[in-house]
Amino acid sequence: MRITQHPILEYDRRKEVRFTFNGKQMNAFEGESIAAALHANGVMTLSHSLRYDRPRGFFCGIGKCSSCFMTVNHIPNIRTCIVPVQQQMTVTEQEKLGKIPCTPFIPKKKENITREIVVVGGGPAGMCAALAAAEQGASVLLIDENNAPGGQLVKQTHKFFGSTEEKAGTRGIDIAKELLNGLKNKKTIELRTSTTVIGYYENEHMHRVIAVRRLIQGDQLLEISCKKMIVACGAMENLLAFPGNDLPGVYGAGGVQTLMNVYGVKPGDTVVMVGAGNVGLIVSYQLLQARVNVDRVVEAMPRIGGYQVHAAKLRRCGVPICTSSTIKEAFGKNHVEGAIVTKVDDCFQPIPGTEETIPCDTICLAVGLTPSIRILEQAKVRSEYIPEAGGTVALHNPFLETTKNGLYVAGDASGIEEASTAMIEGELAGVSAAISLGYNKNGSEVQQKCKNALQLFRSGPFGRIPKICKEKISSCLACEEGGTQY
Amino acid sequence: MTKKTDVVIIGGGINGCSLAYQLAKQDIDVMLLERQHLCSGGTGRCGAGIRQQWSTKENAELAIQSVKIFEQLDKELNAEIGLRQGGYLIAIHDEKELKQAEKNVALQKSLGLQVSVIGPDEIQKIVPILDIKGMRAIAATFCPTDGHADPFKTTDAYAQAARRHGAKLQTYTKVTGIKKKKNTIECVVTNKGKIKTSTVINAAGPHSKEIAEMINIKLPIKPLRKEILVTERVQPLFKPMVISFTDGIYFSQQEGGQILGGISNPNEKNGYFSDPTFFFLQHMAQTLLRYAPSLNTVNVIRQWTGYYDMTPDARPILGEVKGVSGFLQCNGFSGHGFMLSPMVTKLLTEYIVDGKTSEILHNLSLDRFTDKNIEKEAYVVG
Ligand SMILES: Cc1cc2nc3c(=O)[nH]c(=O)nc-3n(C[C@H](O)[C@H](O)[C@H](O)COP(=O)(O)OP(=O)(O)OC[C@H]3O[C@@H](n4cnc5c(N)ncnc54)[C@H](O)[C@@H]3O)c2cc1C
Ligand code: FES
Question: How far apart are the C-alpha atoms of A455 and A473, rounded to whole Å?
């Protein structure tokens, strides 16, 4: 199941690690997540559903869906997709509800941290925010719950669009490397990975967040105070409702990218891709690069949503893109064995008699994302449901500041868009936060540059929806009433 | 919206919905008004513990009778309310508490309750995860028929049954005024229009105070923020609700495996403060781990707040008030309104339908506060 040859990627497999799954010895490579390592060893079922005892597997790969809960070193309910595998680890499937261990209690002291700016989320938006703020002179703490920063950017093997100044023509993974290097070289940025922000609490004149740092010997609580805070915690993949959608072998597109492009593990041999937006098209092509057969892409809309270049590339490789079609059912005993797809009419209703059964072992869902705004909700910023944003989003001004003083949002968390604009938004939020603290080397110029770049991106044909989204956000912000107050 | 009805109930919590059901069942034309969705007040935020171990006779009696009703409610309402009777274990920390407990147990036993004082060994047997030393217990009282129900399922079961009997439940309808003529009620004013009625039941939780002020009745109710949390699911560990009046803590394990509990904040001020605090999270986690150290790897997944509608003696205000006929109170539960609701609402229904009064309604009327020597409920937790 491990990918050995890839046209673009090289995988770091220098150090082998041995661990056990349900008592059986298994091999992995250092840096792999537990779930990815299990996958590479052919273990697809990670847990069973509590009520109906249905098998569950890897779905999101970024710690947001809970289908990968397992007991690790006797501690239950570990999200194995974001915890790195380690030498001698014992991994067991839970008998549904996890058993608590009988270990002695060693309290770990809480750590108190005060920093000028805290950035939550180390994806493209968060990394750029941290860099931009530090560039102006502010001291920054960057927090990410995964064990390495990079977010979705480290999975993008394709070249980016836009102007050369915004790194067009460069592959996402290479941009990520550049940003990571930048982070390492900035002494005023502290990076904390494997750390999850779990709560926002009111405090006089400061933002206060509580985070949990996951350690092998147990967790540690961090109490963090800061003057400005930038929330860039991305988005969650949408699930689609159809019978069998929870079978192991049904993945979110981001989950598939994580498996293939971060860990070099094949999701399966034959894929049906659902959704022909950019994500669906790009991931289909990445699957081909990893030598996985893509049977077809189904898209419920009458036309392809993503860029023509990506669609054309797929077509050249002989992958049909079927519009006005959708998945009706996934079937299989313990794992996906096939999919039933069907044509849909103008009202997206299945047309009887058009069903087709496709043997496949993988179904990949690329049906959109929902902004992650829970921390912002806790901070009680004004928010609004905006369909063009992908869900409920925090209202924010052109400098990405929310209705709460000194609290910014950037990237997918501010409305679903793409990595290029996430980076610019991050930069704009970072620089604006720094300026408001009095750090301004060339901040005003950077702000202007970012605003121009965003405008440029959103004036093209594919910027249409984000443009509407941002317009709606500013008109909601303008009216006194309305917006949900949490 | 119907413009006329026999009875208006203000508040869509457990008490409002139960009243709507019981009145509608007696063929009374009833309309319930809720400013948000059902269960948006205390009911949807509470621990939903059901305890019969009380220090005052009225509360104990109401609770004992309520448990009898809870026990057959699934059948009566043709729904599942998630009742689980795992008992309540009340920790005793010193001789003084032990004396009070013995007195209370005697009172409770005289009312027919199965309850006893137990020693450390027995505590350990009933709740193995407890650390007797850590929790500093010398004994406990235990009543096996106490327990817990699902507040959402119970309220929904009442609401559905009420609708089946013809009650109208209007959500997102806020009461903004009450009009009276001389000493009788004329109509209730809402953000969606007026409703003519002669009887109003005030079951608006802490907001009951503001409702009563609309016709110049003063209720001695103060809203007090209460915080509560829930953990992820783990394998079944214990059945009872464990509480301590000294530490102010209560916790139990839900059917799904979550540990749910709260603790009082000795420095909490009265008022509508809705924000969850970090103080609570820490205080609760630390105390819980002192009681049950083996929970140290369990993650908290959510914390939230609600209000206790506190009265000076921590007992509810029930029944018709002097001065305005047809204005009934069903509030001031001081943190125990879920467990008392079946019996309280039954008594109020009997009063409305047949004019039947009872000693309990009399003892818990608003009038009692004019008396200086009111008996205070000592057994308040959370
Ligand atoms: C943290 C916590 C833990 C608790 N634990 C327990 C427990 O273990 N056991 C127990 O028995 N009790 C417990 N309680 C107490 C219990 O929740 C309440 O006593 C009970 O739910 C009260 O129910 P109710 O129907 O009287 O009021 P509520 O459930 O508060 O309902 C009142 C309703 O009135 C509505 N309303 C207010 N103003 C207006 C208006 N102007 N117009 C229209 N509608 C209005 C509100 O929106 C609300 O829905 C707890 C409470 C809290 C906060
Ligand atoms: S949380 Fe691990 S796969 Fe989604």
Answer: 15
CATH code, domain carrying B164: 3.50.50.60
A250: Cβ contacts below 8 Å, ≥ 6 apart: A57, A59, A244, A330, A336, A362, A363, A364, A365
Same domain, residue pair B299 and B234: yes
Instruction: Determine contact, residues A262/A6, Cβ cutoff 8 Å.
Output: no
Which residue's C-alpha comes closest to atom 35 of ligand 1?
A: B11
Number of domains in chain B: 2
Which domain covers residue B121, as residue numbers? Answer: 88-144+222-310
pLDDT (tens digit, 0 to 9) for every residue of chain A, 486 residues total? Answer: 888 888 888 888 889 999 999 999 999 999 999 999 999 999 999 999 988 999 999 999 988 888 999 999 998 999 999 999 999 999 999 988 999 987 765 668 899 999 999 999 999 999 999 999 999 999 999 999 988 888 888 888 887 765 556 666 788 888 888 999 999 999 999 999 999 999 999 777 899 999 999 876 778 899 999 999 999 999 999 999 999 999 999 999 999 999 999 999 999 999 999 999 999 999 999 999 999 999 999 999 999 998 899 999 999 999 999 999 999 999 999 999 999 999 999 999 999 999 999 999 999 999 999 999 999 999 999 999 999 999 999 999 999 999 999 999 999 999 999 888 999 999 999 999 999 999 999 999 999 999 999 999 898 877 888 999 999 999 998 886 554 443
Tell me the shortest Cα–Cα distance from B10 to chain A, in angstroms.
24
Cβ–Cβ contact A201 with B under 8 A? yes
Contact A100 B293 (CB under 8 A): no
Ligand 1 pocket mutation pick from B190, B338, B381 by most atoms within 8 angstroms of CB = B338
Q: How far is CA B359 from CA A204, B338, B347, in A?
A: 51, 21, 10
C-beta B35 within 6 A of ligand 1: yes
Q: Could you tell me if A100 lies within 8 Å of chain B, comparing CB atoms? A: yes
Please give the number of the atom of ligand 1 that sits closest to the Cα of B18. Answer: 25
What residue ranges define each of the domains in chain A, with the CATH number in brackets?
16-104 (3.10.20.440), 111-236+371-478 (3.50.50.60), 250-369 (3.50.50.60)
pTM, rounded to two decimals: 0.89
**Nearest ligand by distance to the CA of A69:** 2
Residue B269, burial from CB neighbour count under 10 angstroms (0-12, 13-18, 19+): exposed
